[in-house]
Every structure is written in C-alpha cells, then in structure tokens.
Specification:
- By secondary structure, this protein is of the alpha+beta class.
- The chain is built from 18 helices and 11 strands.
- Strands 1, 2, 3, 4 and 6 form a 5-stranded antiparallel sheet that branches. It has a 4-stranded mixed sheet with strand order 5-10-9-7, with helices on one face.
- Strand 3 (89-96) and strand 4 (101-107) form a beta hairpin.
- Helix 2 packs antiparallel against helix 3, helix 9 (269-284) packs antiparallel against helix 10 and helix 10 crosses helix 11.
- The relative contact order is 0.09.
Length: 452
Amino acid sequence: MARRALKLASLTAATSGIYLYGNKFLDPNDFGIVRVGRAIATTAVIAYDYLTSLRSVPYGSEEYEFVKSQIKELFLSFEDTPLGAASLAQVHKAVLQDGRTVAVKIQHPKVQAQSSKDILLMEVLLLVVKQIFPDFEFMWLVEEAKKNLPLELDFLNEGRNAEKVAHMLKNFDFLKVPRIYWELSTRRVLLMEFMEGGQVNDKAYMEKNGINVNEISRNLGKLYSEMIFVNGFVHCDPHPGNVLVKKCPASGKAHIILLDHGLYQVLSDSFRMDYCRLWQALIKADMKRVQKYSRRLGAGDLYPLFACMLTARSWESVNRGIDRSPVSAREDVEIRSNAAAYLPQITQLLNNVPRQMLLLLKTNDLLRGIEAALHTRASASSFLNMSRCCIRAVSTYQRSKSHSLYRRAQISLGEALSLWQINLYELFLWLKGSQLGNWVIALLSRMHHSTY
C-alpha cells in the first residue's frame, strides 16, 4: 500500500485549486496561505493525491484511470466538491470500504514552503508600517503566528486536541466531538467521524427542527466557561462553521457538535485565577476588584477600556452591572463609535496584556456574535453559569494550595454555600418568568390582601 501511495504521488505534477470562504473575523494566524506539508506513505494520502493528480493529468488518459483506481481501493465513494474549505485545508465527505462515512480533512499542497515566506512577508510589512507610524504596536501578530501556525498545521495535534477536549467535557452529554480514525490519519490528512447539522447561529434552522435557541446558547456558554475557567484548555475558533447543532432523532435532545480543533489556548493557573476573579468582579459590579485584577492582567490605567472590551458593554453598563439589562441599540452604537475613537489605546492594551489574553478576546468576540445572532446576548443564565465555574475553579485551586485539612473543609463549605446561593437565585428567576411563578405570586398576593 505504501509503495502504491508513493507511485501515485510521483504522478502529481500540479497543485489543486484553492477554495476560500468568506471570513469576517480577523485572525492573526490567517495572513496568507501559511501551511505545511510532508512526504507521506500511508493510505490516507491517496485521497490527497487524488485531488491533485486528477487535475494534473489528461482526462481519460492511462495515468488518469490509474489514479482513479487507487482511490476506489480506499473509498466506496469520495466527493470531489469540498464540504468546506479555507486557506488551511478543505474537508471532503467519503465512505470507507467498511461502510463508515467519514470527513477527510486535507491540507492544501505546497504550503510548507509558502508558510515561512508568508510569515517573513508579514514581519517585513509590519516593520515598515512601524517605521512610518511609530505608535503602531501590532508586532505581536508575528509572534503569535510563529507560535500557533506549526500547531495548527499538524493535523495529528488537532486529533489529540479533539480527544482531549472530548474526555475533558465528557460529563456534558449534549457535546459531540468527531471520533478520530488514527490508522488513516497523518500530519496533513485527518480522517474523522462524519457529523452534520445546522450552524449554531442559524436561528431559522433551529426553529424548523424544534431546537430551543435559549438551551443551545446556555449549553454553549457552559462549554466555554468550563474550558476557560475550570480546565484552562480553550477551543479558540468557535466561528459558526465550527459549531454545529443537531436534534437527536432517538432522544430528542439537541446536540452541539464542536469541529476544527487545531487552535487551542492553554492558560496558566495564575492567569486563569486572575481571569476568574476579574469576571466575578465584573458580574458583581465590584469596581475595586475590577481595577485590581485588570491591572494584574496588564491593563494598567486602561482598566475601564479593558473591562469594556471583555464584556462588549459600555462603562456605564459595567458600573451598573452587566447582568442587569440586555444590550440596547443605543449602547451598541456607542460601543462601535468608541472603538474607533479609542483605537490607539486599544492597540496599546493589546500589546500589554499577556499573550494568553489575545486568543481569549477573539474567542469572546466569536461567542458574542453567536449570542447576538440568536438574540440571547447578556442573558442572566450565561452569567450564572460563568459564576459557577469561577467559584469551582477558585475553590479547587485554593484547596490544591492548602495543606490544612480544616482550611480545605472551610473552602469546600464556602464553595457549597456560594453555589447554593446561585441555584436559589436561578430558581427565583425561573419562577419569576414562568406561569407557575406568576400563579404563586398571584396566590400570595391574594392571601396577603385577604389578611387585611
């Protein structure tokens, strides 16, 4: 099989076309076609060579028929047209000989040679801009690209990330992560379980399929709160194409399918604890602690701007309490106009905060975009879930640092009480918004008036 793969590869004389999709989100890792390649002698590479070879040999020729015969030995069917594509790779649907339907993620050809050139070009351009505009502070883009691109380009690393997050969040039965077929995967070709569904921001799809929009938004918040605050291992590319939803026909439950596990951020314990405490302060509108932990995270005197960037709320809303009211149209306009006015300060802030914060800011923005599309932004339940995770994370960390049995018991009791208070408050909010709650309130009101 390996010999056949190498023989097939020797026929490849040209590269495949590059499929691009429109991406409105700025990704510092997506400047140019920055990719990597490797000579592979495994069965999975035949799929890759099939895509390139059939474009490079004459249709109907002996070579053309040979390439087609090789792909048929691996797959019962293989769809030429990709399900999705970007500058990194493209994904095709295929059926293996044993009947399993798989997604085949194939890295674009000739990307290894191009990657170093693209990063060098980006570095040179940024240096030129820096010379012309001394206040320009975006050199960190190059640092992040150099660090993250090799990880994204190694599809075996992506497979390991997928398995790790699936195990880490196994208690969430609504989460589905595609299984990796290691025996057919390499650094540039990844075979995984085929899963399909509607995009997480497609409200019309959810309504058509009887999926509760609020439940999806709440569960997505649970996933990311757990990843960020509790585990410190964060999937950093939750754009709608990577987060699908589907209703299970058997159970009737709505599943969230998490795809594309190439880009993760690992948070240090010290950073994670400061970030937890900052969000606790933001939810409680405790401005002294907002200032304290914002400064510890590198914001300095720009802590009000930092708080606004994290929450996507105005400073007035942050002071009042971000869980008190949803974002109004007036506030949205104010935020957009201020973003342009404070661009130099935003640039300075991004240059000063820990590098771990950069991908979290991107992740926050993508999640916020999903909430905006579903009209669930700034819901009380999302802040309650964040509070729970922050309490658990801080308590676990404190217990790990304590050598006193009494102190650990004290921490556990405080954790239980805090979580109980949140549960009680959540019950109050549910009763307040439900028909049963209205009935109870009306009954109590009648009882109160009859007493007098």
